[in-house]
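Re: weekly structure request thread

Next one in the queue (280 aa):
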Amino acid sequence: MGIRIVIDSTSDVTNEIIEKYNIKMVPLTVNFENGSFLDKVELNSKEFFEKLEAAEKLPTTTLVSPGAFVEAFSEILMDGDQVLGLFLASEFSGTYDSALMAKNMIGSDDIHIIDTRSVCLGAFALILEAIELVHQNKTIEEIVEELEKLKEKIVAVAALDTLKYLEKGGRLSKGQAVVGSILNVKPIITIKDGKISVIEKIRGKNKAVKWFDEWIEKNNYDLSDKTVLLFHGKAYEQLKLLREVIEDKYKIKNIIEQEVGAVIGTHSGPGVLGIGFVNK
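Done, posted below.
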């Protein structure tokens, strides 16, 4: 009996990793006025940002239904494997609750569900830990216990062009969002314990890379033994610059680059630049 990892599309795990480790990805949905699309299945990052630019009305997102999880979990169980599900923070979406409902509907002890308390690169970082633990042939109970400890050590920080998209999507209050709309202020957010917080406000897009560099130094993060995730949304030149600045300076063991998908892009908007890792 093997262990099969199940994720949702908001972790933005790369296709290479999904294929290499036989991960099952269950997509959320992005709704534009002219139609709905399964994240990463019917709409890739490039197509999404093109549609976002052309849209008069901002898109919305829809969680994964319990039925979609029942189908995914049942397929894995029928193959004789156990299910290890890691999903975005329950505070951000009902997707985690849908997964729990599916587990209860199936009624199997071979389904284990984890609330990552994060999203996007934070969830991705924890999924990488799950892959490593499965590879070490630990039992699913041992893996869950270890991941529950590790999720407290997730570090996920992002620089946004604007808080408008988070506010429109109901992830931040209007009062919090107003800050970023004046004086060309670019907010820096952190995602921790299922909460999004503005931790810094910088003036001008080009200062984001400098901020990340100083932030790593100030926190004395040792990245020499870590896989570091660098994410962007239509900001690849900035990502390349950030990588050039930090890769050798902090002797980073491994870097994975990724562009945010449609669901994350709906809430972050274009211009986002982020970094994530597990600080263990």
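Residues 32 and 55 are 8 Å apart (CA to CA). The first helix runs from residue 15 to 20.
Next request, please.
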